[in-house]
Amino acid sequence: MQHISSTLAVPDSTYVPRHVAIIMDGNGRWATQRHLPRVAGHSRGLDAVRAVVEASAARGVQFLTLFAFSSENWRRPADEVSFLMRLFMTALRREVVKMHANSIRLRVVGDLGRFSPRIQQLIKDAEARTAGNTGMTVTIAANYGGRWDLLQAMRKMLARSPMLDPESIDESVLAPHLAMSYAPEPDLFIRTGGEQRISNFLLWQLAYSELYFTDVFWPDFDAAELDKAFASYRQRERRFGRTSAQLVAPGLSGTA
Ligand code: FPP
Predict the structure, then answer these.
(1) What is the C-alpha separation between 242 and 256, in angstroms, rounded?
(2) What separation in Å is there between the alpha carbon of 11 and the centre of ligand 1?
(3) Catalytic site residues (predicted)?
């Protein structure tokens, strides 16, 4: 399905964001504050993932995208990286059973070739198992980077049409090759842990997303915190380039 591009047309604004994308930050600091090893924060982070998946589905979110591991996270100490890989495997084995029971579809986006064959197989199995589910779609961004995504999309676009006339390249030619072309652009972006950065997440798709930053560390982010983010979202005036006056008289609105 082709979704509306926020730069080409004005998408509908809905009471509950259709697509929520989250950078889950602050696991390490949560643990350090408690004199625990950093990895204890990641384990609690997985508990928070479970809570936020449940709460999002209950509130009618259609797409939930979680930044689990960035292209740059390989730079972390080797034992932390291998712990995160094991946690990812546990999640793919255990959580997927629960997601499937709740009609949730799981997808994983990113440069997956760098993961072990075992993890790649678990990803394929989890995606295949939940492919027919019609509830919320949970996307895990793993070894993902926004620049990687744009580059792989450009490569795919040119591989398909090597003689492409540069003048003919517009959004509708490139966008279908992006890793998350199956989802509308995020309505709401959340980053926990106090930093106010996009950190190479969905660079193309965040063009008109509402941005919400909270100091709460990811392991402490729960349904109540999600509701605070949604309340903030509802107060935003989503103009997509239009003026406030045009929002009052929608008949006058055009594309911008
Ligand atoms: C950022 O916190 C978090 C990560 C790099 C890993 C995220 C992983 C999880 C939430 C658990 C597993 C989730 C899935 C979906 C399998 P940080 O370590 O950068 O925190 P810090 O900034 O306080 O150091």
Answers:
(1) 6
(2) 32
(3) 25, 73 (proton acceptor)
Q: Are 112 and 120 in contact (CB under 8 A)?
A: yes
C-alpha–C-alpha distance, residues 40 and 220, integer Å: 13
- Answer yes or no: 149 catalytic: no
Q: Cα-flanking dihedrals φ and ψ of residue 123, to 5°?
A: -65, -50
Distance of alpha carbon 167 from alpha carbon 183, whole angstroms: 27
198 annotated as a binding-site residue: yes
What is the arithmetic mean of pLDDT over 97-113? 96
pTM here is 0.91
In angstroms, what is the span from residue 28 Cα to ligand 1's centroid?
A: 7
60: its two tokens: 């009618």
**pLDDT tens sequence across 42-63:** 999 999 999 999 999 999 999 9
Q: 4: which DSSP letter? A: P
Annotated ligand binding at 195? The verdict is: no
Distance, CA 45 to ligand 1 centroid (Å)? 6
* Atom of ligand 1 minimally distant from the CA of 66: 15
- Candidate list 47, 73, 133, 200, residue with the active-site label: 73
The CA-based diameter of the chain, rounded to the nearest angstrom, is: 59
Q: Whose CA is nearest to atom 13 of ligand 1?
A: 46
Residue 71, annotated as binding a ligand: yes
In tens, the pLDDT along 22-45 reads: 999 999 999 999 999 999 999 999
β-pair type (105-109, 210-213): unpaired
25 belongs to the catalytic site: yes
Task: Give me the amino acid identity at 55.
Answer: A
Atom of ligand 1 nearest to the CA of 31: 23
- pLDDT tens profile 158-175: 999 989 999 999 999 999
Using the structure block, give the residue that is written with the tokens 């997956």: 112
